[in-house]
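User: Structure tokens for this complex, please. No commentary.
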Amino acid sequence: MAKHEHVRVAVIGSGFGGLGAAVRLRREGITDFVVLERADSVGGTWRDNSYPGCACDVPSHLYSFSFAPNPDWPRTFSGQRHIRAYLEHVTDTFGIRPHLRLGHEVLRMAWDAEALRWEIETSRGGFSADVVVSATGPLSDPRIPDIPGLAGFPGKVFHSARWDHDHDLAGKRVAMIGTGASAIQIVPAIQPEVGRLTLFQRTPPWVMRRMDRAISRPERWLHRAVPATGTARRGLLWGIRELQVGAFTKHPDVLGLVEKLARANLAKAVEDPVLRAKLTPSYRIGCKRILLSSTYYPAVTQPNVEVVAAGLREVRGSTLVGADGTETEADVIVFGTGFHVTDLPIAERVIGADGRSLAESWKNGMAALRGATAAGFPNFLTVIGPNTGLGNSSMILMIESQLNYLADYLRQLDVLGGRAALAARPSAVGAWNRKVQKRMERTVWAGGCESWYLDANGRNTTLWPGTTGEFRRETRQVDLSEYEVIRAPRPTAPAAAVSAAPAAPATPAVSAAPAAEGGAPKDGDAPRTKENAR
Ligand code: NAP
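Assistant:
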């Protein structure tokens, strides 16, 4: 008989979001859960992206969990290897390994309205769960554009997130497609070894210097000996970014000053006026993600690098044809063309209460209440859901806010007792989404540039148009008036939806997260009100 396991919570994915959810569940006293991971190790995007030069453009002390500070970060901006090792360490430290189900790809999951649970089919057997936490992330499925003739290319082709380390690039003619956050890290890393590097740039990015340096031994010693110094460092990094948010979300004109700095950076790094003109963006800085690198411009000025200021239009044998008609011979094509961000592949596999997939439900654009719950998908929460991304700060802050929401969601289910589920009211999802989209109108991201933040309809369903502090407040607690409570049908009666109780009664005690340490928002820092002080 095929394997079948029932758990209270099934978490999908083991990147920052999934591991964070797993740690939070344990800290809430919940141990009846699994983490379903399609790969054979944890780490999510930090496992998959191992391309040369891969590093984070958010400082290490902010790009880590508040509940798992690392005093030993070796650099101000960490490389992929260290971040991946950090996530392995978190997995061990918080006892997550027994919950991991590696090599389990979720193929399909459907809501069972009778049993009030999700039936989950994976590549290695079935599961059912009262609650599903989808933490598959927006950067998990690579996007390779449909380029005519690509299948006939005789050389090697790979995506930045699927780097082929066995393929030696030394002396080769390499074409890099795209100039996003991944490409600008790859270019300086491979330029010295390749024979020729042709960069297909559809839209030039704004690039600022990255102030990366080794963190000194005395600094590390201090963070180990006096943990409050690490917290203060994190708080400072967070505070600076919170102050910057208004320029992106309310006063894009202020970014003109930043644009001047970026222009000066370009002018200093690139003397050739023709190349500089190619590399100069024509949109307001911040509309697309601002990229940080001190090595990208110096690399593109090297004699073995050529910038084609056009996208890749077609491949004819080993000839790459740009949208401007230029032709380039190549041995290797590297796609740095991003991910399926607004058309998440997992959404095709999630079948809701009315038999429709999440992808169908989101065909006019992703929308979820407080970034977490979608109408028609009871007891299904996303981590890094719609409109929870950031333009200038650490996603870990947003993830921890979503984990607060998840923790309160589970407490509310406990309060309801018996077999019950929560279903986001379409009116609440709609109201939340309208509020978010209204705020979006003033932001720099609505400035008319094409970016991966926008979906096929041109709507920004990716970013949060506010501070991380605001999002933290919005996700402190589940507002039951935004949900319908679904009760399991009695054996003889059909399923019924009843209105949510206005106020939650006291619940049995659950294990509390350690007290927050001040500075940047912390995991579990929801205020202890009468409703949730338990
Ligand atoms: P991306 O930002 O989506 O960039 C994709 C690039 O491919 C863009 O330059 C795009 O041009 C280009 N492109 C697409 N189709 C093309 C074509 N046919 N011809 C030429 N160019 C084409 O993808 P990414 O660089 O992989 O980054 C994705 C996200 O990952 C980032 O924004 C960031 O959030 C994250 N990331 C973070 C870090 C970090 O340090 N934290 C590092 C790497 C990645 P257009 O601009 O014209 O669309």
